[in-house]
Amino acid sequence: MDLVRIIFAILLPPLGVFLQVGIGAQFWLNILLTLLGYIPGIVHAVWIIARR
Predict the structure, then answer these.
(1) DSSP element (H, E) containing 29
(2) Per-residue burial over 5-19, b = 16 or more CB atoms within 10 Å of its CB, e = otherwise
(3) What is the model's pTM?
(4) Residues 14, 36: Cα–Cα separation, whole Å
């Protein structure tokens, strides 16, 4: 399942974070990072998925 989440994190970072933690502070932070730059959103999403 983590492989699927990482693929989603690369394609659409907020979706990967949502699948891991749901709607919370990390989800909204990831949306902000993705809007500011696609790469920071990906890095944050992969970090959240790998951490848990």
Answers:
(1) helix 25-36
(2) bbebbeeebbbbbbb
(3) 0.90
(4) 13
